[in-house]
What does this fold into?
Amino acid sequence: VSQAGVEELVGRALQRDRRALARLLTLTESVPESAAAIDALMTPKAGAARIVGVTGAPGVGKSTTVSALLSALRARDLRVAVLAVDPSSTATGGAVLGDRIRMLGHATDDGVFVRSLAARGQLGGLAAAVPLATRVLDAAGYDVIVLETVGVGQSEIDVSSLVDTTVVVLAPGMGDAVQSMKAGIIEVGDVFVVNKSDRDGAATTRREIRSAVRRSLEHGQWQPPVLLTEAVRDVGISELVEKLDCHAEHLAASGELTRRRRVRVRREVEILVLEGVRLLMARNDDLVDGVTGRAVSRRQPPHQAARAVLDGLADVIRA
Ligand SMILES: Nc1nc2c(ncn2[C@@H]2O[C@H](COP(=O)(O)OP(=O)(O)O)[C@@H](O)[C@H]2O)c(=O)[nH]1
Ligand SMILES: [Mg+2]
It folds into this structure.
C-alpha cells in the first residue's frame, strides 16, 4: 500500500469508518513500512483512551465479562474497542467473543469495534503489535480499549505491561485460585473478579484472593478490590465499572498512569529496535556471513565478530 493509500485509509478511519480501521490494523500487523506510516499519522491523535486488560485462565468467563462490560460502557455512551488475544486458540476465542457481540446487537453499532489478534507471524510479535493497535483505536475515537488475553504465565505476553488497568478474572475452585497465585497473577491485578458466583465456592475463592492480595505488599495506596460477578446474567458488572473508574482516578492522581505509560513506550521502542536489527541483518546477509566466516576459522572470536556486525550495520544505517 502506497503512502497515499495509507493516508486515505487513515482519513476514513478518523471519520469512524470501521472497515478502513480494520484494514489499517491488518496493515500494521503485516507490513512493517505501513506500520511506521500509520504510527506517524495516528499516534499524534491518540492519548485519550483508557486501556483495560482482562486476563485469566481459559473458561473462567473473560469473554462473557468483556461483553457485559461492553454493554455497560455503551449505556454510558462510551465508544469501546475490544482486542482479543488468545495464543492457544485465537480463532475460537475470537469467534466466541464475536458471537456474543453479535448476540448483544453490537454488530451494527459503530461505537463498538472487536478484533482478534493473531499470536504469531508479526513484526516483534504481539508485544509490538498490541501497543500500535491500541494507539490506532485510540486515535480512531474509542474511549475504552479492552484487551482480552489468556492468563499470565501461560501467555507469551504479559498483559499488565500493555494496559493501564489489569482485571484478573477467576472462577470458584481452590485449584484455580492457587494456580493463579503461583503464576504471579496477584502481583499484576488491579481489580480481581471472581466470576461464576452462581457456583459453589465463590465466597471461599474471594476470601483466598483477598488474603493473597493483602499479603502482597507491592500495591502502595491502591487496594485491589475482589468482586463477585455472574457475567452471564450481568450480575456485579456495574460494580466492576465503578471500580474501573476508581482505578482510573487513582492512576491519574498518583502519577502512576504516567509511570506505567513511560515503561510501556520504553518496552515497545526496545522491541522495535531489536526487530530493526534483525531486519538489517537479514538484508545484509553478505556482511554477517563474511564476519561469521572469520569467526568460524578462528581469525576473529565471536564476541568481536558480533561487535564487527554491529559496526557494519551502523555504517549501513548511516549510508
Ligand atoms: N455459570 C456461569 N457460567 C458462566 C458465567 N460466565 C461465563 N460462563 C460460561 O463459561 C464458559 C466460558 O466463558 P468464556 O467467557 O468464553 O470464558 P473465557 O475463556 O475466559 O473467555 C461459557 O460457557 C460461559 O457461558 C457465569 O457467571 N456463571
Ligand atoms: Mg475468551
Observations:
- Residues 89-94 have pLDDT under 50 and may be disordered.
- Residues 51 and 145 are 5 Å apart (CA to CA).
- The first helix runs from residue 3 to 14.
- The two ends are 26 Å apart (CA to CA).
